[in-house]
Amino acid sequence: PVAEPAPAAKPGFLGRLVSRTVEPRRALDDEMLESLEDLLIAADMGVDTALRVTANMAEGRHGRMMSATDIKGLLAAEIARVMEPVARPLPIYPKKPQVVLVVGVNGSGKTTTIGKLASQFKAAGKTVVIAAGDTFRAAAVEQLQVWGQRAGVPVLTAPEGSDPAALAFDAMTRAEADGADLLMIDTAGRLQNRADLMEELAKIVRVIRKKDPDAPHNTILVLDATTGQNALSQVKTFQEMANVSGLVMTKLDGTAKGGVLVALADKFGLPIHAIGVGEQIDDLQPFDPEDFARAVVG
Ligand code: GDP
């Protein structure tokens, strides 16, 4: 599926809509719950999740008089509750090198995220190697090299159009020889030819397992938060192609409609390792459920 950016929403739009719907006070009745459901759907939460969130908010409170502040508080608490279990940083393995496969559609922010992660690990005293596994896109390889320079991390490349699995194998050899803590492998993101990409990812995994049967230790799916509900279908697609173990959500600086993260947590329960909040090297943050809930509700 081609990612279509959701219409821009201004920060705090959900909160303003709640205020408009509830001011000054209203009973938390069926009509009000229906209005809230519509607001949550407009915030990209999806129908199932919006229904569950409102039902949980209303439990034991049906018919009670509420102010907009009460509703926003309940909503934020419920969102934080859904998000709490998925807020988990990338687990660190004692074994070297820890192999992290990074997957996602083109444009989702894979290259940028790899650069940011490399920089963070480097700052934490880890040695990192990056493999530019999207060998079919020369521009992607160049971009990754730029990020590697910024982060001070070597980027292994292969000639354009060559086999990414061979590069991944060489990168394993290099990371082992260097005693690197972490090997991050970028991958192609052309969903236009799904079967091809699936075979390519499977081959990378097969080949690196010759070196370490437990590799990859993590398979991170990078998702662009501004694609809204499209992110859900991307998770399904990539789960069919690879053993996705966690998510990084990018471009949360550009959207007030982070509601899709709630839907993702509710439906898939995959850990969110980090969020991208800008294009600079330091713009990657741990995911904080309470900050997030406050930001979504506004
Ligand atoms: P890739 O094709 O998946 O490797 O995606 P890139 O890493 O090249 O990113 C695509 C575009 O999104 C670039 O213009 C990045 O600067 C931008 N980008 C990536 N992450 C973020 C983020 O967290 N916030 C913003 N605002 N832009 C981002």
TrEMBL record:
Catalytic reaction(s) noted: GTP + H2O = GDP + phosphate + H(+)
Sorted UniProt keywords: Cell membrane, Cytoplasm, GTP-binding, Hydrolase, Membrane, Nucleotide-binding, Receptor
Ranges for domain SRP54-type proteins GTP-binding: 97-298
Subcellular location: Cell inner membrane; Cell membrane; Cytoplasm
EC number: 3.6.5.4
GO BP, one annotated term: SRP-dependent cotranslational protein targeting to membrane
Enzyme class: hydrolase
Quaternary state and interactors: Part of the signal recognition particle protein translocation system, which is composed of SRP and FtsY. SRP is a ribonucleoprotein composed of Ffh and a 4.5S RNA molecule.
The protein's role, per its UniProt record: Involved in targeting and insertion of nascent membrane proteins into the cytoplasmic membrane. Acts as a receptor for the complex formed by the signal recognition particle (SRP) and the ribosome-nascent chain (RNC). Interaction with SRP-RNC leads to the transfer of the RNC complex to the Sec translocase for insertion into the membrane, the hydrolysis of GTP by both Ffh and FtsY, and the dissociation of the SRP-FtsY complex into the individual components.
Name under which the protein is recorded: Signal recognition particle receptor FtsY
Native organism: Roseicyclus mahoneyensis
Lineage, uppermost ranks: Bacteria, Pseudomonadati, Pseudomonadota, Alphaproteobacteria, Rhodobacterales
Gene expressing this chain: ftsY
Full-protein interval shown: 86 to 383 of 385
